[in-house]
Design a protein that fits this description.
- The protein is an alpha+beta fold.
- The protein has one domain: Gcn5-related N-acetyltransferase (GNAT) (Aminopeptidase), CATH 3.40.630.
- It has 6 helices and 8 strands, in the order E-E-H-H-H-E-E-E-H-E-H-E-E-H.
- It has helices spanning 36-45, 47-50, 66-81, 131-144, 161-169, 198-211; strands at residues 21-22, 26-29, 86-92, 99-109, 115-122, 151-156, 173-184, 187-197.
- Strands 1-2-3-4-5-6-8-7 form an 8-stranded mixed β-sheet, with helices on both faces.
- Helix 1 crosses helix 3 (66-81).
- 24% of the residues are buried.
- The mean pLDDT is 95.
- Bound molecules: coenzyme A.
- Coenzyme A is lined by residues 49-50, 53, 120-122, 127-133, 156, 160, 162-163, 165-166.
């Protein structure tokens, strides 16, 4: 059995909700209650774009309604404070009050795992410019840095070629194939499982630094 970095289990850390991540083109921060209107605009504009890749809402539920969006922002802020999930809204630096997507680390497990699931999406009109991988890279720096996580996992449907391309560009490792893994748009869909650990992330950062 291979042993990696036997420095003991990392502490459980909850970075402050005031955190702000920046990249050359983007700014990312947790959602606030004052963002509800802007998040509703973004969700409404992207309903058709996101539907094939999202769990179906419960019957009679409108995930873009004031009630649902307000509840989800409150839940995301509560989950952040409890260390259960870290959700970031993403905007262009040139227009920071207009959101263009979301990146989240959910289902955070501490103890011997110190892992999380990665989820992401971007506005239909902002695709194809490498913005998602740029934002996710910053969230991975956050996950393996201030949030002290050891493993970030992603599950992607085999036909979601754009998302598979994103995760490959980020250097995730393919770990397996899970049949009927998640219920997406009402169907239990197979998913390819990918992961990245802190050791892999730090090694690739060192390689990037060496290239500069
Ligand atoms: C998957 C997703 C996040 C990609 O975001 P993005 O910011 O466009 O990512 P990139 O710009 O790096 O593009 C990734 C790949 O998608 C493809 N792609 C992007 N835009 C495209 C377009 N308009 N037409 C055709 N292919 C496109 C390209 O193959 C690209 O790879 P390349 O850079 O090697 O050419 C985005 O398409 C999305 O939000 N999809 C719906 C939600 C979703 O699937 N989330 C992930 C669930 S696991």
């Amino acid at each position: 059995m291979t042993r990696h970095g036997s420095r003991g289990i990392p502490p459980t850390v909850i970075p402050p909700l005031s955190i702000r991540l920046t990249t050359p083109r983007l700014v990312l921060r947790p959602p606030r209650t004052t963002d509800v209107g802007e998040i509703r605009r973004l969700l409404r504009h992207n309903q058709a774009h996101l539907e094939p890749w999202s769990p179906a809402p419960r019957p009679g539920e409108d995930p873009t309604s004031i009630t649902e969006v307000s509840n989800s922002v409150l839940r995301q802020r509560r989950d952040w404070k409890n260390g259960r999930a870290f959700t970031f809204m993403m905007a262009l630096k040139t227009d920071p009050s207009r959101f263009i997507g979301k990146i989240a680390l959910t289902g955070i497990m501490r103890g011997a795992m110190h892992g999380a699931y990665l989820g992401y999406w971007i506005d239909v009109d902002h695709q194809g410019r490498g913005l998602s991988p740029e934002g996710i890279r910053a969230v991975l720096d956050f996950a393996f840095g201030p949030a002290q996580l050891h493993r970030v996992q992603a599950a992607i449907m085999p036909r979601n070629t754009k998302s598979i391309r994103v995760i490959e560009k980020l250097g995730f490792r393919r770990e397996g194939y899970a049949e009927r893994y998640l219920q997406i748009a009402g169907t239990w869909e197979d998913h390819i499982l990918f992961a990245r650990t802190r050791e892999e992330h730090l090694a690739s950062e060192l390689r990037d630094d060496a290239r500069v």
